[in-house]
Amino acid sequence: MANTAATQTTAAPHAAYESGLWSWIATVDHKRIGTLYLFTALFFFLFGGLEAFLMRLQLAQPNGHVVSAELYNQLFTMHGTTMVFLAIMPLSAAFFNYLIPLQIGARDVAFPRLNAFSYWVYLLGAIFITVPIFFELAPNGGWFGYAPLTTIQFSGGLNIDFWVMGLQILGISSLAAAFNFITTIINLRAPGMTLMRMPMFTWMSFIVQFLLILAFPAITVALVFLLFDRFFGTNFYTLAAGADPLLWQHLFWIFGHPEVYILILPAFGLVSEILPTFSKKPLFGYHVMVYSGIMIGFLGFGVWAHHMFAVGMGATADAIFAMATMLIAIPTGVKIFNWIATMWAGEVSFTTPMKFAIGLLALFTIGGISGVMHSSAPADTQQTDTYFVVAHFHYVLFGGSIMGIFGGIYFYFPKMFGRYMSESLGNWHFWLNFIGMNLTFFPMHFSGMLGMPRRIYSYDAGQGWEKFNMASTIGTVLLIIATLIFVINFLKSRKGGSVAPNDAWGAGTLEWSIPSPPPDYNFAQIPTVTSRYPLWDLKHPEMTSDISHASPDAATVADAHAAPMHEETGGKTAAELGIPMPFSTLKPLFAALGLVIMFAGLLFMHTDKFALAMTTTIGGAALLIGSLYAWLTSPLE
Amino acid sequence: MANAHAAESASHAHEHVHEHVHEHVHYTTTGLDHKKIAIWAFIGSECMLFISLISTYLIYKGRSVVGPFPHEAWTSPSGQLFAPILNIPVTSASTFVLLMSSLFMVLALEAVEHKGNPAYANNIRGNSKFWLMATAIAGATFLGFQAYEFTSFVHEGLTIRTNLFGSSFFTLTGFHGAHVTVGVLWILTLFAMDYSRGLTKKDTVLVDICALYWHFVDVVWIAIFTLVYLIK
Questions:
Q1: Distance (Å, whole) CA A205 – CA A273
Q2: A264 domain-assigned
Q3: Residue A503 catalytic?
Q4: Which is deepest, A25, A329, A527, B187, by most CB within 10 Å?
């Protein structure tokens, strides 16, 4: 064990920071950072939902007067931006943070302070991009921000500047987190945790991190060009100078399509944990699930131009991208069938997380099928920019990502807070959500087919769109009630739910072997992993009899029994167990603050305050560099 | 050299296993340092960044409405004559300097890896401070060449606002120059550490990740030099 002198120096600061606001601001613990991500992202999920609700109120009837055209533009831009970058991605990040180290048998991520930095950059970036809407200054060019529309010539004012800088900031957060998780998954797996024994959530997260690091640079470059055009007068999107009006679209969708899989694969991973647990069967076709996930990620980089069928790329390009898009349906379909086969002949119990997981299967399949319809270029040219597309991507993002994430929250809540969420409220939440979701988005297929365009702030009566729009608006009311029930359930259950044991649901993976909530060091003793379901190997060997236990390092079930993984720690602290823990620190927060101030300073350039802009930007950069220097020269633990 | 390096990392892996048994810390699945894996992931991401920048330059090649142009002479409507703007002999020299800096970096890494090896003591091969400073000076020289190039282009009438060539050229090479600048500062930091406390064999990974970054920045320059300067 570690020498006592080191133990004492690490123990002292920890004792002081165990609870209260300070302990959260200075934390580098992956579980606390995951919890921070969860709360922040849920807040922005509610905020983005409110933006959508205002739009639905406006569209409930023809010629609505709830919001102005300008505010409507800001609402649809910020609804998309919020849901993609501030809600679903960080909700996934909450699970990455909380679960990856627990699932692979690690005490923390590879770079705990970088992890804190990612969170603070996300939070500050989210505030940066959200606050302008209170001053009607929010971005108004759509979540895709098509240039040349977003160049200074067509979109003066600060609105687009907030969007450009905000996305750059959020991109830095995602990239920093991705480098961290890739390193964590490659390098911090417990003995016996081979790649092909990793829980499916960790696998899908692993793939997502690669998508992040390879896709984000494309939008970074597109945004840099736009920023330079807007601030320094370059010509990247100036058509008069010979620029290509499709440059932005290509760069954006080279990022944007992998982004779709960045949003859905974590939910797929959560569902792949939930279904085996409540079917009491190992996941069907584990290897194929891994390979199909990799295949989806790989093909995801070759289909971006199916977002651009309407721009006239020519028959060859259209045909190639159409076929590549159709190919993606294969690995995705494989996953759906494997999940069904996992439930087949299992002892299925319909708990709330299970309902959400099955809900994902059903709703994502509908969205997937309308996606295959879009892959045909001639069909897509009819559907593009109509509500049919809105229906499609809400079935995959709400019906897929959000259902999976809700399932994940109900499933992992007992692990995170030591108590179950209420099943009866969960039941209400699920059914209202399920009905509300279908009532909101299914009619959009029809209004879209009848030609209703996206992003219009009002429409005339007599085009056959009225009843579909009214139905959608009523659906959003149900969604709001459902979400309120969830919020009440979530907040009440943290203190009032029934107490959960270590293994709250009888699941088979490592995170369920340790106390709920886990101690700050996670594992008193790093476990030895015997198969894909090490906990079932100990408790229900009959359930894992037909999965592989062969291992290059010969970790066997007997080894696991010799070193039981769910060792009772009796509430001992890390110091008592001699486990060195990272120090709490504010340096990542200051670094994040410096980064955001640096970007924010540039905004003053557009208000003709050049000196102020330079002072703020250089001040921010100095704070960033100073914090980084202090961070890198101080010891971790 | 390669064999020595492999043996080195193998012995590191061995050390890590022992550390795990005795004191919990620094156990890693692969036996490699976390930083080593993270820098490769970072370089993968940077590849996509430069691919996007270089692709844009190539897509916009020949699309500028007004001069100056990289490889062709141009007469403006006001009758002003512009020669082809890229100066290949000067840039060849700066490219050579940058490539030499990669060699110095390899030697700096070798020197740090062999700290404590008598064969390297008291001779130039073991002098990590010398090789680190040589690398930094070569990198700074490359930046000097770039500053000269940018200034002379501006004097010849090409700014980042002039045309598509100016926008895409200055952005691409400017991004590369910023990466070189970060690299030079990183190497100087290593030099300062070496100067103040002396780098030891245990610091190999710190030099190693810096070297990987530096070589990557060099490789990107080879792509830029070929695609932007050499191919007409």
A1: 13
A2: yes
A3: no
A4: B187
Closest CA to A176 of A151, A148, A203, A209: A209
Q: Residues 309-368, chain A: which have Cβ within 8 Å of B? A: none
Domain assignment present for A382: yes
Residues in A touching B49 (Cβ below 8 Å): 217, 220-221
Of A30, A31, A79, A107, the active-site residue reads A79
The backbone torsions φ and ψ at residue B87, rounded to the nearest 5 degrees and listed phi first, read -105, 95
Q: Which H helix or E strand runs over A201?
A: helix A200-232
Query: A628: exposed, middle or buried (C-beta count within 10 Å: 0-12, 13-18, 19+)?
Result: middle
The ipTM assigned to this model is 0.92
As for how many domains chain A has, the answer is 1
CA distances from A192 to A107, A145, A188, A285, A531 (A): 16, 47, 11, 20, 8
A277 part of a folded domain: yes
Q: Does A533 map to a domain?
A: no
CA distance to A109, A110, B5, B32, B139, per residue, from A187 (Å): 10, 8, 20, 8, 33
Integer CA distances (angstroms), A473 to A1, A54, A78, A119, in order: 62, 10, 19, 34
Measured in Å, how far apart are chain A's first and last C-alpha atoms?
A: 15
Amino acid sitting at position B9: S
CA distance A357 to A339: 10
Q: Give per-residue burial for A587-609: e unless 16+ CB within 10 Å, then b.
A: bbbbbbbbbbbbbbbbbbbeeee
CATH assignment at residue A498:
1.20.210.10
* Contact residues for A133 (Cβ-Cβ < 8 A; gap 6+): A51, A74, A75, A78
Cβ-nearest to A183 among B41, B64, B167: B41
Query: pLDDT for A313-359, tens place per residue?
Result: 999 999 999 999 999 999 999 999 999 999 999 999 999 999 999 99
Active site (annotated) includes residue A428: no
Contact A456, A463 (CB under 8 A): no
What gap in Å lies between CA A578 and CA A303, rounded to an integer? 51
Quote the domain boundaries for residue A333: 258-282+293-310+327-506
pLDDT digits (tens, 9 = 90+) for A553-595: 545 555 555 555 655 566 778 888 888 888 899 999 999 999 9
